[in-house]
């Protein structure tokens, strides 16, 4: 295979930041952005590879996957998420692997493959819990999404529900100020009380602050 050449002059420099901004906007505007920047994003992806920046490349692909899923393009979203997962499985931190798996789970669910979604979601929870424990918002997000999927499939929800309540209890014990308590109330509303809690990759890449 020939060596990848240096990046050409004029390669896009702001497309990743532009994608970050588009991800927090309306779905119709995001869809337009994706259509209009397809070439620029591919060029930026090649830039990362030319520079040997595999992490930058996979980060872009994960963001693209989340964006595709937000606008209903499940197949494109799944392809990008799968590429990310293959690129980091067993190589990145458990938290990073869990993040990619939550996106892969959401994509599988959107494609109608709930068995694969559950498998990826369970593995994401296990990886994340092993690295960060029970008392962080990210594990709350993963468990809330997994619980909702189990409910939709009519599966036994009690083990996940118990772990979710354990996380809530730990977060409540750590909430020592009015600001902490308000933050916890927001977490409950978004993840526990919601009929459709967002998956963790979406929350992470939209940079929501809790």
Task: Please provide the ordered H/E string of secondary-structure elements.
Answer: HHHHHHHHHHH
Helical percent range?
Answer: over 70%
Shape field: globular
Radius of gyration: 18 Å
Provide a compact summary of the structure.
By secondary structure, the protein is mainly alpha-helical. The protein is 74% helix and 0% strand.
Structure description:
There is one protein chain. The chain is mainly α. The protein has a domain at 14-92. The protein is 74% helix and 0% strand. The protein has eleven helices and no strands. The protein has helices spanning 15-23, 27-36, 38-50, 54-70, 74-88, 94-110, 114-132, 137-153, 158-174, 178-192, 200-205. Helix 1 (15-23) packs parallel to helix 4, helix 8 packs antiparallel against helix 9 (158-174) and helix 9 (158-174) runs antiparallel to helix 10 (178-192). It is globular and about 45 Å long. Residues 1-10 have low confidence and may be disordered.
Write the layout of secondary structure elements.
Elements: H1 15-23, H2 27-36, H3 38-50, H4 54-70, H5 74-88, H6 94-110, H7 114-132, H8 137-153, H9 158-174, H10 178-192, H11 200-205
What labels describe this entry?
74% helix, single chain, 210 residues, 0% strand
């Amino acid at each position: 295979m020939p060596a990848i050449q240096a990046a050409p002059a004029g390669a896009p420099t702001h497309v990743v930041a532009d994608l970050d901004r588009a991800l927090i906007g309306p779905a119709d505007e995001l869809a337009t952005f994706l259509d209009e920047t397809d070439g620029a994003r591919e060029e930026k992806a090649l830039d990362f590879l030319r520079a040997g920046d595999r992490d930058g490349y996979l980060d872009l692909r994960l963001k693209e996957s989340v964006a595709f899923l937000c606008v209903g393009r499940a197949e494109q979203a799944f392809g990008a998420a799968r590429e990310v997962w293959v690129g980091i499985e067993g190589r990145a931190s458990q938290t990073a692997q869990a993040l990619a798996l939550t996106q892969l789970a959401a994509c599988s669910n959107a494609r109608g493959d709930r068995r694969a979604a559950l498998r990826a979601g369970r593995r994401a929870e296990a990886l994340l819990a092993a690295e960060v424990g029970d008392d962080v918002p990210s594990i709350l997000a993963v468990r809330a999404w997994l619980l909702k999927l189990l409910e939709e499939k009519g599966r036994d929800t009690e083990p996940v529900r118990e772990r979710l309540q354990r996380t809530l209890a730990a977060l409540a014990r750590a909430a020592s100020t009015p600001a902490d308590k308000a933050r916890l109330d927001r977490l409950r509303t978004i993840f526990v009380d919601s009929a459709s809690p967002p998956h963790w990759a979406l929350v992470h890449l939209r940079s929501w602050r809790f």
